[in-house]
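Complex 427.
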Amino acid sequence: MKVTIHRGSRQIGGSCIEIAAGRSRIILDAGLPLETGMELPKGRKEVLDLNVPGLFAPGPPVDAVLLSHAHPDHSGLLASRRAEIPVCMTGATSRILTSLYLFARGDWIGERRTLPEHEPVVIEDCTVTAMPVDHSIAGACAFLIEAEGKRILYSGDLRLHGRKPGMAKRVVEVARRGHLDLLIIEGTRLCPADAEATSDHYLRTEKEVEVRLVELIRTTGGLVLACFGPTNIDRLVSFFRAAVNTGRQLALDAYASHVLHMLKGIGRGGLPDPMKCDKIRLLPGSGATPAKSGGGTKAFLDRMRRKIVMTEEIYANPNRFVAIARPSSLGRDFPHGLPPNTLAVYSMWSGYRDKAEWRDFTAAVDATGGRVEECHTSGHIHPDDLRSLIGDLNPAHVVPVHTGFPEMFEGLWPNVRRAEDGVPFDA
Ligand SMILES: [Zn+2]
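Predicted structure with zinc ion bound:
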C-alpha cells in the first residue's frame, strides 16, 4: 500500500490523506486548514493548493472519501470534490451533516454512504472498518484499512477522557486481531511545555466538566447561559445533566434541538428526546424559519414550538433556566437585554474569545452584574493517554498527523515515520 499525506503532516486541521492499493485509491478526510477560519475563500484557492488527482483535480476519480467526523478541518473541502465520488461515514456523522446543512449554513455534501460500525466493508481492493471513537463531536470514527496483506489504522481525532472511554478499548481489540503495520494518529495536544497556553486551565475529563458545571450553576440565582457547539454531544449532555441536577430546564435553540433529535435513535439510548423531555425547552428566537427547508424541518419545528419558552417567562424566573447562547443569538432570544446577574459558562476552545463578537458578548454579560466563567475539556487525547494508546495498539510504525509538533512523537514510540506533505511512502 502507498500512503500520501497530502496535508496534515505538520499542521492541525486541513487533513487529507490518500491510501492506494491495487486498483483502489481511498481518501481519508478532506478538510479546511485552520488558517482559513474554516471558510472556503472565494475562488476556492485552497482546493487548488491541494492537488489530489481525481479528487478535485482531473485524473481517474478516487474510489471514495472516508470522513472521520464532521468538523470542518476534516470535512470542509468535501463540497468541492468531484460530484461522483461517494463520501463514507458513520450514521451519526451523516445526521450531523444534515443538521449543519439545515440550521448552521453547512455545505451540502452530496452522495453519502453510511458505514456500519465495526463491520468490514469492501471498497474495490481495500477492506474498510469504521470504528467509533470519542471526540468532541458525535459520530467520530477511526478507520482500519486492510489491503495487500497490510493493515493501517487511521485515528481521526479522538480522546480517552470523554463519556465513552470504552470506544478506544474496542478499537484496540479490533486492531490487535492482526499485525498493525501503520498507525496514522493525531497529536493535537503534543507541544513543547512553553507553548501550552490556551489549554492550561482546561479540566482533565468530561466528567469533571459536568461536576464543575453544577458547582458554577449553584453560585448564581440568575440565568445561566451555556456557550458551546451543539454537535459536541458530550457537552450538551453535561449541560443537560447539570441543569436537571440544579432544578433547571435546558433551553435550546432550533439547531441544538435538531442535533439532539437527529442523534436520539443512534445507539445512544441515554440521550434525551427534545420533543418529549419536559426538561428541554425551545428558546423564543427559534420561532424564526430555519435557514433551509426540507428534511422534515417544518414538522420538526412545528412540534418543538409547543415547548417554546417565552422571553417573559425567562425574565420572570431566570433561575429556572440554563439557555444555550452565542453572540449572534442574544438579540433574538433576549430582545430586551439579559436579566440581572447572568452567568455565562463558556465551554469551547479559549481562542474564540479573542474575537470581537465574543468580547461584545462578555461585555453584555458583565453589564448585567454577572460574569463569564470558562469550563472546558479538550476534544483531543492527552499526551500521556496518547503514549498508552499507541502502546496498546503496538504498531510497527507510527505516522504523526494533525499536529504542529510531529517530532514530539519520537519520545512516545520507537518507530516513528515522519511523513512530508505530498510525498508518497510504502506502508
Ligand atoms: Zn481535527
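The chain has two domains: 2-193+379-426, 206-374.
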